[in-house]
Amino acid sequence: MRAVNAISIIQKKRDRNELTREEMSFFLKGYVAGDISQHQAAALVTSIFLNGLTDRELTDWTRAMIDTGTRLSFHELPQAKIDKHSTGGVGDKVSIPLAPAVAACGVAVPMISGRGLGHTGGTLDKLESIPGFRVRLSEAELHRCLDRTNVAFGAQTDDLVPADKKLYALRDAIGMVESVPLIASSIMSKKLAEGIEGLVLDVKFGSGAFKPDVEEGAELAKKMIALGRGMDVDVVAYQTAMDRPLGRAVGHALEIVESVECLAGGGPHDLRELVLLFGGEMLRMARVAPSVEDGKRRIADALDSGRALRVFQKVIEEQGGDPSIVLRRDKLPRASGVEPLKAWDEGVLDYVDVRAIGLAASELGGGRRDINDVIDPAVGLVLRAERGERVKRGQTLVEVHHTDGKGLAECEKLLRKGLVIGPEVAPSPLVLGRIES
Ligand code: URA
Hints:
44% of the residues lie in helices and 15% in strands. It has helices spanning 6-14, 21-33, 38-51, 55-66, 95-103, 123-127, 139-149, 162-174, 180-192, 214-230, 252-263, 269-285, 292-304, 307-318, 354-366, 408-418; strands at 82-86, 109-113, 151-155, 198-205, 234-241, 249-250, 337-342, 347-351, 380-383, 390-391, 396-402, 419-422, 431-435.
């Protein structure tokens, strides 16, 4: 038998052969320990990107990723632990109103989230625009937050799937993000290490999604569901629209303002619809509600009664932030200028490139090119017209919130690339469907 070593593993996958569980475990542990180089990891990731993984390999790869770190466990909490994860999009702030609303209904939400990268914003970056808010929580702090508020918004700790931390940065640097097995294992390894009993997945489709194609999105959803079920976690996926940004605000502090509006029973209709749907599903999974419909009613009540907003205030306080931002928007970072982008024609507004809209917000200083870049939490976009709306020439389409004009010209170029004013738009539902196996 040939001795297991990094080169033979790379060659095996390069030549489209199946890897064993031992080989994957050897490779990932060696990579995390620094015994396997970035070059070798890049070669294996590229081979997986090009040649894929069988279902058996995907399960073993995901388990091997989890085993490079330690798993969280919240077994001391009697209530169900349920989470939600999105494959990422532009203006996607759903987690921020969702977690407190679900928590207000008696379910614990240990939400380990990510940073923004590329054209997408990250939940953690948005929360950090609240003065003082800390997301780098130790395991003990995660337990304390969950115990006191039913919510913890935390960053991936150093011990939680360290293989993914390294691999994700590597994939980003070598252009190997958009692969079904690599995305599925990356997302599910982190979620399955979280100690949850149920997970709702929001799999985006459309030009602002990492996997724009509906069929490929469904394939990704099915792989993630199978990985969850294989490890006794109930997983349901929804395919939802990212052929337009979600809500009106794109930018960190601006999205916190919109999240607070939603938590207070208002906010944009599409944001509220997804919060009700995912919240209803999470309550059904937790057996707090007998059906998704009943769960949606309970979430609506938590939002409209102010209970969800009060939980959010407690969460902010527990995580070191200033809860008065809920009433005092002026305490959030504010851009130094606001510039309107006006309609250059008359007709019906549509989005042809949502990725460009996300990149437009990035250009203002709101995004990262590299994981170590510092972002400007005040800048961003407020969309003043919706997809499908009839607009007049000269009407404001987008408010551009900028800091001293930084990135304005490039931002405007990208907005004009992403938006189109035409005769009509094709119908496209916000929620395409539910996938459960
Ligand atoms: N989000 C993740 O956590 N991993 C991916 O690979 C893509 C999106």
